Amino acid sequence: MDRLRARRRRRGTAVNDAVRERNILLVTSVAHFLAHFGLLIFPSLVLSIQQDWNLPFDRALALGFWMYLLFGLGALPTGVLTDLWRRPQLMIVICLAGMAACSLWAGLTRTASQLTCALGGLGLFASIYHPAGMGLISTGVKRRGWALGVNGVAGNLGEVLAPVAAGLLAVVLGWRSVYLVLAVPSAAMAVLALRLRADGLPAPAAREAEPVRGRRRTVLVFSLLCVAMVCGGIAYRGQTLVLPKWFQEQGGALVAAVEGWTWLPRAGGSVVAATALTSLAYLVGALGQVVGGRLSDRHDLRRVYFGFQACALPLLVLMGQTSGPALLLAAMAYSFFAFGMQPAENSLVAALTPPRLRSTGYGLKFVLVFGMGSLAVKLVGDWERAGGLATAFPRLALFIVGLLASVIVLTLFTRREAIRNRN
What we know:
Shape: globular
Structural class: mainly alpha
Number of helices: 19
Radius of gyration: 21 Å
Helix content: over 70%
CATH class: Mainly Alpha
Mean pLDDT: 84
CATH architecture: Up-down Bundle
Distance between the termini: 32 Å
Number of domains: 1
Strand content: under 5%
Low-confidence stretches: 11-15, 202-209
Oligomer: single chain
Number of strands: 0
C-alpha cells in the first residue's frame, strides 16, 4: 500500500511538473514575442515617422535611443529584484502590463519628446522580461537548451512579424496605430499570466550543482563572456536598425516586385516592401533557433557559440556589398546563424552562474547586450551621415571579430572543463 501511494505521488508530481513546464514555456514565449515585437517595430516605423514629422533619418532614429538604452540598463536591477523576490512569474506580469500602458501612450503622442518618453517607458518595462523569463526557464525546465530554443523562436517570430506588420499598418492606418494594436495583446497576456501556474522550482533544478571553480576564476570567465556579449549586442542591434533602410535602398527588383503586389502608393509600397523583405530574412532565424537549441543540448556550448558567430561574420560583411536577390540570400543566411547562436549564449550564462543568482546573471547579460547595444543607434546614425549605410556593415563586423577573440580566450581559460547543458 505504501509503495502504491508513493508511486501515485511520484506520478502526480511528474504531472504537476509537466503542467508547470508547459505553462512556463507558454508565458515566457508569448512575453518574449511581445517584448521583441515592441522593440523591433520602431526601426520599421522610422521611415514613416521621418516622413510624418519631416525629420532627417538620423534624427528620427535617435527617438528610439532611450528605449534601447533603458531596455538594457533596466535588466540588471530587475534581475536582482527577481532573485531576491523569487517571483519571476509576477515580474513578467508587471512587464506585460507596463508594456501595454506605454504602448497606449506611444500611440497617443503628438510630439517627438512625448514619443521619446513613451518609448523609454516601453523599453524599461520590456527590460523585465529577459532576466525574469530566462531565469524562470533555466531553473524551471529540465531540457534547458530545447526550451531556450523554443522560447527563442517565439522572440524571433516577434522580430519577423514586427517589420512587415509595422510597415503595413503604418502605411494604411498611420504609425501610431501600431502601438495601439500592441497594447491589446500585452494587456490580455498580463491577465492570463497572472492566472496560470508557472512559478516555483522543480526538484531537479533546485538541486542543480553550482559551477566548481574559485570565485576569482568564475568572475574572470564570466567577464570574458560579458565582453563577447557586448560585442555581439552592438552588432545585433546595428543590423536591425540598418536592414529595413538598406533593403529600401538596395532591394532593387525585389522591392519593385513586392510593390507590384500591393495597392499602396509608391512611397508607401517601398516601405512595406523593405519591411517585408526584412521579415523574410528574420524568419530563417527561427530555424536557426531550433537548430541552435538542439546543438546546445548535445555539444559543448563554447563550440556551438563560436561556430555560429564565425559563420555569421562573413555574411554580415557580404550584406553590405550586395543588392537585390543576393542581398536577401545573404541576410537570410546571416539571420540563421545570428539568431541560432542565442540558445548557446543563454545556456552559457546559465552554466556560468549559480541557480540562486540566475536572474541576476541574465540581468547583467542584457544590460550589456541591450544597454551597450543601444550605442549602435548613435554609431549607425554617425556612419550613415559620414559615408552612407554601406559603411555600417564592415564596421559592425569588427564587433563580431571582438566577440570571437573573447570566446577563444574564454575557451583557453576553461579548456579543462566541460561546459554543457545538464539534462
